[in-house]
Every structure is written in C-alpha cells, then in structure tokens.
Amino acid sequence: MVADANVRMAELDQILERRDRDPGDLLQILREIQELRGYIDPATVTYLASQLGIPRARIEGVAGFYSFLHLQPHGEYRVLFSDNITDRMLGNQQLLEVMCHQLWLQPGKVSEDGLVSIDMTSCTGMCDQGPAMLVNGRAITRLTLQRVQEITHLIRNRTPMADWSADFFRVEDNVRRSGPILDNKLAPGEALRIGLNIGGTAIVEEVKKSGLRGRGGAGFPTGLKWEACRNASGTIKHVVCNADEGEPGTFKDRVLLTRQADMVFEGMTLCAQAIGAQHGYLYLRGEYRYLLEPLQEVLQRRRDSNLLGKSILGQAGFDFDIEIHLGAGAYICGEESALIESLEGERGIPRNRPPFPVTHGYMQQPTAVDNVETFCSAALAIQMGADAFRAIGTEKSSGSKLISVSGDCPRPGIYEYPFGVSVREVLQDCGAVNTRAVQVSGPSGICVAEHEFHRKLGFEDLPTAGAFMVFDDSRDMFEVARNFVQFFAHESCGFCTPCRVGTSMLKQTMNKIADGHGTQHDLREVEHLDHVLQTTSHCGLGRTACNPVLHTLRHFRPAYENRLKSLDFEPGFDLDGALERARQMTGRDDAGAHLNTEEA
Amino acid sequence: MSNTFSLDGAEVPFAPGQTVMQAALTAGHYIPHLCYHPEFKPHGSCKLCTVKINGRTAASCTMPAEAGLEIESDIDELNDLRRRLVQMLFAEGNHFCPSCEKSGNCVLQALGYDLEVHAAGFRHQFPDRPVDASHPDILLDLNRCVLCELCVHASSEVDGKNVFGFSGRGITKHLIVNSESGKLADTDIALTDKAMQVCPVGVILPKRVGFSQPIGQRRYDQRPISAQALDDAPRPSTGASHD
Amino acid sequence: MTEKKKLRIATTSLAGCFGCHMSILDIDERLFPLLDLVEFDRSPLTDIKHCGPCDIGIVEGGICNAENVHVLREFRKNCKILISIGACAVTGGLPAQRNHLDLSSCLTEVYLTEPGLAHGHIPNDPELPLPLDKVHPNHEVVKIDYFIPGCPPSGDAIWKFLTDLIAGKTPELGHGLINYD
Questions:
Q1: What is the per-residue pLDDT across A429-483, written as a single tens digit (0 to 9) for each?
Q2: Inter-chain touch B96–C140, beta carbons under 8 Å
C-alpha cells in the first residue's frame, strides 16, 4: 500500500515538475491527472494545493467547472455521447439507451463495479460524421448499432483503448468545396518572410486594408484589433488562437488544424510580429485532444526551421513561441475573456469589459485573441496582398469563409465559399432537398426559414461563425429549439443571475411543453425569460441563449402551439405522479388516491 | 460639465476611476444592487444594478463612469427586469423568510420589498442544498446562498484566509469551503472575520444568536433599502452634503 | 336608490396554520366597513362547505395533498380573482421545508419509527387525503392573480390590499406593509 502511494505521488510530482509547479497551469495539471487517473480525488487536491501554494477551494472550483474533470470516481471508461441536434437526428439517444441497457446502468451514473459511466455531452464537433462520442476523451465517429455493440464488448472485456481498432477513431475531413484557404499550398515561412520584409506596421496596415473581419462570429475588424494591441503600452504581449470550437454544428477549425496547421501558426506568428508579442497560445478544445500530438509535431518542425523560437528567420529580437493549452469541456471558454481566464488556470468566467483583452488580456497584458480561421485568413491576406484578398467576397465581407454543413443533406462536410454565397446555393451544393430551415452560425445564430433562403452569408446579412445545420420537412423545429435550450443551460457558467437561473428555467418550460403540459401561460413565460436574458446577461451566451426560441417562435409558432393544451394554465408537474409515492406507502388505489392533471 | 453624466435627468459628478454605481451612490442617487459592496471591487454578477447607458443595458456597478453618458435607471422597464431577477433568486434557492435569522436584515428580502415583489412568479426549484453546522460558533446554510461572491472576496482580501470558493457551473454552481472534508469546522474561519459580516442573506451566521432584534426594529423594518443604501454609501469628506 | 351589489368573497386554508385567517380578523373594527362592501361565501368564518360563484377567493396555505388540489381548483373555478395569502400559499412556506426529504422517509418516521409508536402503521383510510411527494405554492397548480406575502401578512396589509382591490386599484403594499416574515 505504501509503495502504491509512493508511485502515485511520484506520478503527480512528474506532472507538477513538467509544469514548473505553476498555478497558472492548474487546468493543464488537472487535465493530465484526470487523463492518468480517471478522476481527481480529495487527497490529490489537498496535495496540489500545498505544492502549488494556492487554496484547495480554488482547485476544487476549477475542477468542478469543466465537465471533463471529475472529483469523484467516474468509471474506468467514461463514455460521452455527443448531443447536438444533428447527433439526435442520427439516432444518438437510441444508441445511448442500447448501450446503457447492455451495460446495466443509467445515464449519468457509474456502474456498480466502477467500470463505466455513460452520459451526454455538448456537440463534439463531428456533426458531419455523427453520431459521435468521446471515450476517455478520445473522439469516436460514425456510430452505428453495431459499433456501439462492439464498443460495449471492448469495455466489458476491459480492453485497453490502445488496442481498439484505429477505425473507431478515424476522423474524416470531408472537404467538399475548397477555395483560397483550403487549396493553399503556403510554404512554411512564406507569409512570414513577406511580413519581415514589410515590417510590423505594414502588416497591420495590410490586414486593415484587406478588410479582414474575425471569423469567430462577432466580425470585429482584425487589423484594428492588431493595431490596438500594437499601440497598447507594455513590453510583454500575447497572441492567442481561439480553437475552442464549441458552437454546436461547427467543425471547420478541426479541419483547418488537421490540414492547414502551418497556415494557422503562420498567421499567429505574423500577428506576433505585427503587435510585438513574445508568447503565443493555441487554446484547443478538449474534444480535439487527439489533435494535440500532431499539432505539437508541427510546432516542433517550425521551431527546427527557425519559424518559431529565438530570432525567427534570423531577425534579431523577433522571439516568439507557441504552446498549446487544452480545454476540458466548457463552451463558454470560446468567449475570449473566459478563454483568457481558462488559460490562466481559472474557472472560465467572462470578464467585465472594458478593459478589453487588447490592453488587459492574458496576465493583464495586451493580448490579441483571434479565431483559427482568422489567423489563416490573415496569413492569406499577407501572402496574396490586401487588394487580391479584398477582391474575394463582398464589400463588407472580404475573403472566403469555411462553412460546416451538417444535418439533412447527402454531402455534409466543409465548404469554402467567397462571402456572399446564398443559403440556397449552399443547400444545392450539399444536395439538400425539402429543406424546412437552416440554423446559421449555431444555436446562438439565426434560424432561417424557407422564404429567406435567398439571404446571403456575410456581415451585411447573415453573419456566421460557420455552422450550417440543415433541417428538412420531417423535422420538428420545436425539438431543434429545445435541444439548443438544453445546450445553453448545460453550458451557462453560472456567474450572472439571468443566465444561471434563466437558461435553466427556459429548459424546464421547454420540457414541460414537450411533455404535453404546456399552455399559453408557458409561452408568455418563455417570452419573459427571453427578455430578461437578452437585456441583463453578463455575456453573449446569455444574451443569445433565447435566440433559438425567439426565432423558431417567429417562424414555426404552430410547432409550439400544436403541443399546448387549450387551457390557459396547467401545472408544471404531474399531479397524479406526485401521489405515486404515497400510494405505494399506503397501498391505496381508490379514486381519492388519484388526481387528473387537467381540471375536471 | 466635463466630469458629469446624466442619471434619470440629474447631473451626477464623478471622480476619475469611479464606476457609474460608485458615482451615483456618492452623489446620493440610489441604484438597486445586491452583489455590489462599497468596500470591494465590483464584479457585477447579480445584474440588479442594470441600467440603460445611451440606450444599451449594462451593469452600473462595473461600468466606468464617463463624461456625457445618458443613463436611465428608475424606469418601469428596468424595475420590471429587476423584479424578475429578484424573483429568479427567490425561486432558485430555498428562502423561508419566517424561519431565517437574517429576516429583516436581509438585502434580498429588502430588495423584494422595495421592488414590490409579491411572489417568486417562477417555479420554485426547491434545490437540495446542505446545511453545515460542524463549526462550534458558525452556521453555514447554503439554502439561502445567492452566489454574490462577497464572502469569497472578504475572506481572501481582508481576512487573508480563503475560506470560501465556488465550484460547479450553471444552475449547479455552489459555494464551497476550503477544507478536504468540505466542512467549515476544518477551516480557520473565526467569528471576527470580515467574511462573517458581508453575506447579504442568511448563509453565514453566528450560532446561538437569532432573532435578537424585535420585529419592527430590524434594519429594513425601519428604512427601505433605497434609503439605507444611501446612508451607507461613502461620502466625500468635504463639500456639500446631499441632503 | 339601489344598494350597490356586495362583492362575494370566499376564503380557505390549505396547507397552512390559519394564522393568515387570524390576521384577516386582525383588521379589527374595520371588519364592519368591510362587511358593508362584501359578503362571505365558503369560509371558516361562515362554515359554508362549498364555494359558489365569487368575485374574490382568498387562499391561505400551499398544496401538500390531494384534497388541497381539489379545494384550490374549486376556488379557481368559482372565483374571478384568486389571491394567495401568506408565505405558505405564496412560496410553499414551512410545509415545503420537507421538500428535500423523501416522502416515504417522512411517513416512516411519523408512523413507524418515531419512539413511542407501538404497532404503528401508515394509515390507508380512503377518507384521508393522500400527501403529494412535494409541497407546492398555489401558483404552480392553478393560475393565481394576486399574492399577499407575509407570515402572516399584517391586518393592515390585508386591509390595504383588499381595499385597493375593491376600489379597482392595482394593489400596492409599500414599505412597512410588504413583509415576507
């Protein structure tokens, strides 16, 4: 036992050693312990507190925030089914039920022998090859009944995951239409050399001139951001690449990091040169854990080619390197200030703004945070020149955009278009027929109905981070909205009252309507909640959490009304069901021992 | 004219570095608030102090004051939102005022009174939350926690102890205690700590003290919170009184 | 001159303690001017057993058993305006503090394991209302139009509320009259 304890302690010390006992690396340390042990026990938390010199409550707080970290045993095999609406449309709920049945356990619970737990998780970014799941953090795609049965068998036999067939873990790129980014054969260092020739100020000017706007959804002009960061006072500056691609239905960053990692890092390094940064971070969502080693290889190759490190390409004083931080299951960390908190090893709570990250970002130092695709586009703009870049797309939306197409169509995958493409063209290209609606830019985006399919993707009309989920006329748009509402309730950080309580209540009300107990009163309550969320929430998550309901109520109100009782009011719980326990205890089943849920 | 903004039509002066809330309170204008405490850095989680600044809603406790801002606060639309936020907080926890020692001195309750909140309006969540009576002198009743974070800041910034923290997220976010057992008895909290004084509701209470003031003489029996908060606000040491 | 038609009021106490009804009586001598304006239907004050059509229903106490549901529905069906009065009606109140306990453990404790119970059994007489697994405030079971908080609300608060309502004004309590305890 003592020897065992010593081994365990030595393992911890190794992890701590590698991380220099830096409390700023707390999330990375916890993630590594989770990977090693399957959970983080109380004694470990106490030990970490003593070693890192921070309160154990902070460690418990961080571990309790991220959904892939566990403070209690969670099974040797931790199975998480991706629960985006596209996974649901492909039958993930049925597969989960089958697996739970075969392994004799309830969703969310750990089996009695401690072998396995099964639960749902937010979209894992495999919508074009779903239903998908994560087993101990590793992505598995293209689930079928047969695959689930095979996985069940492997788990029951305690087969180490290293011995599972590689085919389970195969992730396709599914590039269906490529353009200047995906076709790009940029040689490592090519754009950087141009940057070194023209200098930092000129890079900023060129990016400004290109009209490039952020690809994460908000569309802030990238050149202005870099300029603000360049002008911000302070000698230490940072470049952060936001690869926390958590918006359900989006998976284009995964493909860019798989196929065009050099272009991403090239863009980051250009940014470093432009703003005068020394440190770069790629914040990779935990769901893309499998990309960590390949990306680290790319970084090492770039260091070996003097494209990272000291005196990059021989330019004295141009010192810049990139490290990769992994997330651990928190959509909110895609919000740039929450991402920075997470990078600092904290709970991912969005900061108050102002001040903005360009002046007070990572470690309160000037920081440029941009999306994966934005960095690719910046590299492209420098490579081809601002004028050529500007010639692509539309006036206010220059360049090309990667669209992640999923849902009801025969050819889901990645489509690169110049900005300005219409919803209808995308639908035609992916082969969608009888389309009822498209959810553009994910749950926080816009639900576009058939009469609006002429609308164009771009900042002038339909701004998008890239998600494009297709729903045909067999789909129930109420269920789509309900899935999205559940997503927001699951991902609310809990900081502000309206979002913490409001998203949860919205979920309950949508469930009540789904269960057939909804009334006009509930629709009014939904509208009240929406108003509170929209006007008082701390960040974009809360402010957009009601969008799915607002948009579907606007376009598909009958999908709600069909479910409502004609009454104006009905209880939010099953009255007769609430008597069940007392019936059991008393053995009664007479008429007085029952209640109609509807008033007689 | 330069260092003033307009609040519901009144000119409010401010000092550099002040937030809208700080400037308003100093100048004798009340904006409803719960998680804001004059002695701590504002963090803006409760959102009761939401105002309209040049037409856009924002939390006034964290918004830096700027010259020329047009701010609306005491208007029906905002008071209606505040009412709903108070209702959400009442529905989220287990708030049984008649059996709470803090009743009459409770900020959440006083806000409810001032905003004429007659009922929670939303479905009560009745969450299952623990009561920690392990400490010989101090009771911790998490049923009433509104997650304002004041005890966390008071304990770390004033007491230098870090007795409290937060774990979980979303609706499961909850206050935790800095000990391996999770019990208050195993922390170094003391009755004299600042953390004992800042809870706006009845979560952190000294034991063996309850209902010590008769009904009618408690803090918010005597004056509504809108008047009390102005009395508590830091005042400029010189210059004209607000009265 | 015809006499103005009196408003008809019904009152009841569900999972409450009758404290709110005591408080209604606490409006003291103002009961006389009140009785010029209203007459009582079903109420502990009249002993009328079932509610007829009424203008105002006042319900004390929340919902803890099947009978409470039936009575509350009777009130909702017959009363144009339905008021929840007191902490129990408005929030579930003291009875709702059992909500974090499992009902079976409550029944077992009370009827089987409590010291001093010999040959105890859980009553199963159909005459007795069955308890619900959780206690609910009234507005979770039927639509409630107004709420008078307090444990109990003071006679003054009730007076102010009712006279506002009878005068056709949206009732407002204001500082000193609105209380949750």
A1: 999 999 999 999 999 999 999 999 999 999 999 999 999 999 999 999 999 999 9
A2: no
Instruction: List all residues 6 or more positions away from A159 whose beta carbon is below 8 Å from its beta carbon.
Output: none
Chain C residues within an 8 Å CB radius of B215? 181
Under CATH, which number does the domain A176-390 receive?
3.40.50.11540
Q: Chain C within 8 Å of A598 (Cβ-Cβ)?
A: no
What residues of chain A lie within 8 A of the CB of C133, using their CB?
Answer: 578-582
On whether any CB of chain B is under 8 Å from the CB of C146, the answer is yes
Q: Do A535 and B177 touch (CB under 8 A)?
A: no
How high is the ipTM of this complex?
0.95
Residue closest to A73 by CA, chosen among A124, A98, A37, A108? A37
Question: Residues A379, A267: contact at Cβ < 8 Å?
Answer: yes
Nearest CA in chain B to A571: B123
Residue A330 · residue A214 · CB < 8 Å:
no
Q: Which of A324, A244, A289, A257 is nearest to A135 (CA)?
A: A289
- What three-state secondary structure class fits C28? helix
What is the CATH T-level fold of the domain A400-473, as seen in this structure? Ubiquitin-like (UB roll) (3.10.20)
How confident is chain B (243 residues) per 10-residue block, as mean pLDDT?
89 96 96 96 96 96 96 97 97 94 96 94 90 97 97 97 97 97 97 97 94 91 94 65 41
CA A202, CA A15: separation in Å to the nearest integer?
42
Q: What is the mean pLDDT of chain A?
A: 95
Identity of the residue numbered C57: G
Specify whether the CB–CB gap between B132 and B100 falls below 8 A.
Answer: no
Query: Which residue in chain C has the smallest CA separation from A590?
Result: C126
Closest Cβ opposite residue A586 in set C69, C123, C134: C123
Give the pLDDT confidence score for residue C178 in this predicted structure.
Answer: 95
pTM, 2 dp: 0.94
Task: Enter the tokens of residue B25.
Answer: 């309170």
- Chain C residue closest in CA terms to A583: C130
Give me the residue spans of the domains in chain A.
2-65, 77-172, 176-390, 400-473, 478-561
Q: Which residues of B touch C (CB under 8 A)?
A: 90, 94-100, 103-104, 109, 112-114, 116, 118-121, 123-124, 126, 128-129, 215, 221, 224
Q: Which fold has domain A77-172?
A: Glutaredoxin (3.40.30)
Query: Closest Cα to residue B30, out of B219, B197, B231, B241?
Result: B231
Cβ pair A599:C73 closer than 8 A: yes
CATH class given for the domain over A478-561: mainly alpha
Contacts of A538 (CB under 8 A, 6+ apart): A350, A495, A496, A498, A499, B44, B45, B47, B59
Enumerate domains of chain B plus CATH numbers.
Answer: 4-74 (3.10.20.740), 100-225 (3.30.70.20)
